[in-house]
Amino acid sequence: MPASASRRPSPAAGASLSIGQVLDQLREEFPELSHSKLHYLEAEGLIDPERTPSGYRKYSRTDVDRLLFVLRAQRDRFWPLRVIKEHLLEHGIEPEVTSIASRPGPSSQLQAVRLDRRGLLQEARVEEEFLAELEQYGMLEEGSLFFGAAELEIVRAARSLADEGLHPRHLVMVRTSADRQAHMIRSVAQPRSRPSDAAARGQAESIAEDLGEAMNTLHSALLRRRIHRP
């Protein structure tokens, strides 16, 4: 669990939060969390906030704890929603439970960060010229004012490769491959999304995340096999 999670204040036992307050409270750990994702998890029966007489959702402390379990199980253990739902029905919220679905992966190492350009240089331990080269070859977007965990991971990985002689100009095919994979994933997920249906948009987001993790696993397995092949 990210250290920031332990510092995040929880609502009092009798308090309730609006959907916007829930997103604000969890944004540090889950910056990509959206209204549509919460609506989708609700439609799938994973969370069940109360409704006011006027129809607004209200989340209790128990609801937020359950939501955190669902999101962390997806991120850290790569559990599909079906497995998470079955676990909740059988065991409730048990953060220390183990499962054959648990396995380490790149996403489990990421923590939410927000860095300006100087902060990114310091955290990644690179020079401005190296960052500019990554932008030149499309590894980072030019003109960005702030950077998150993904950008930090990209710069650190690129620095490690550069230390062994593989510089950003050599990695264009890696970026191109990622672009093609992202396009393939969007082509599968986006047809499930409808602008007027928040649950459908959340389902599309969840499908895209699951496909991305599966693609990462496949790529890693194929790469390991190729590297170790005589």
From TrEMBL:
SMART domains: HTH_MERR (SM00422). CDD domains: HTH_MerR-like (cd00592). Keywords: DNA-binding. Pfam families: MerR_1. The keyword DNA-binding applies. It comes from the Bacteria. The keyword Manganese does not apply. This is MerR family transcriptional regulator. It comes from Brachybacterium equifaecis.
